[in-house]
Design a protein that fits this description.
The chain is mostly helical. Helices cover about 60% and strands about 0% of the residues. The model has no long low-confidence stretch (mean pLDDT about 85).
């Protein structure tokens, strides 16, 4: 856990993606734990961002959900959102 947190804190997206790929030992498991959950989270976040309420939201999720073509950042960008790491 410390290693993945360090990769995220350091902004080493390439190494973080490589770590996430090591979790893909079983395609069905990975789909259920990562890809499907990322899609559901992206849909929920899109609802917040496009909603009528102009509020601030805090969204907490594991670092492995940020990277890759099927990660949350890529999904939000495909939906037209600009994602900025701060």
């Amino acid at each position: 856990m410390d290693d993945i947190l360090k990769l995220w804190k350091d902004g080493d997206d390439k190494a973080l993606l490589e770590f996430v790929k090591t979790l893909q030992w079983d395609d069905d498991y990975f789909k259920g734990m990562q890809t499907d959950r990322d899609a559901a989270m992206a849909e929920k976040i899109e609802g917040y961002l496009n909603g009528d309420k102009k509020e601030t939201y805090m969204i907490a999720l594991g670092a492995s959900h940020f990277s890759g073509d099927s990660g949350l950042v890529a999904m939000l960008e495909k939906q037209g959102f600009k994602v900025v790491k701060q």
